[in-house]
Amino acid sequence: MVKIIHENGSAATKTDSTDVVLDKVQVAGRLNISLRTLETWMAEGDIPFWRRKKLVRFYWPDVEAYLRRRFGVGYPPGVTIR
């Protein structure tokens, strides 16, 4: 189980067996983008992430949902590639 507190203060608990929590390097690698591009998306508030002091993490299913919304790409909801 993962408890996620979003930048706007809302909280969610994820209990799905597909929980995948990643750091910036892992997300940039999966998306084949630079760390700078990922950090730009974060600064613009586009991509979902959470921060605890200097620790930044991403919940992969939320990132996939973001990609579907913004770019119309990715896998159907419920399908996760590991």
Would you spell out the secondary-structure blueprint of this structure?
Elements: E1 2-5, E2 11-14, E3 21-22, H1 24-31, H2 35-43, E4 50-52, E5 55-59, H3 60-71
Antiparallel strand pairs: 1-2, 3-5, 4-5
Q: What does the model show?
A:
By secondary structure, the protein is of the alpha+beta class. It has one domain: Arc Repressor Mutant, subunit A (Orthogonal Bundle). Helix content is 35%, strand content 22%. The strands form two sheets. The protein has a three-stranded antiparallel sheet with strand order 3-5-4. It has a two-stranded antiparallel ribbon with strand order 1-2. The chain is globular.
Tag the structure with descriptive keywords.
3-stranded antiparallel beta sheet, alpha+beta, 82 residues, two-stranded antiparallel ribbon, Arc Repressor Mutant, subunit A, 35% helix, 3 helices, 5 strands
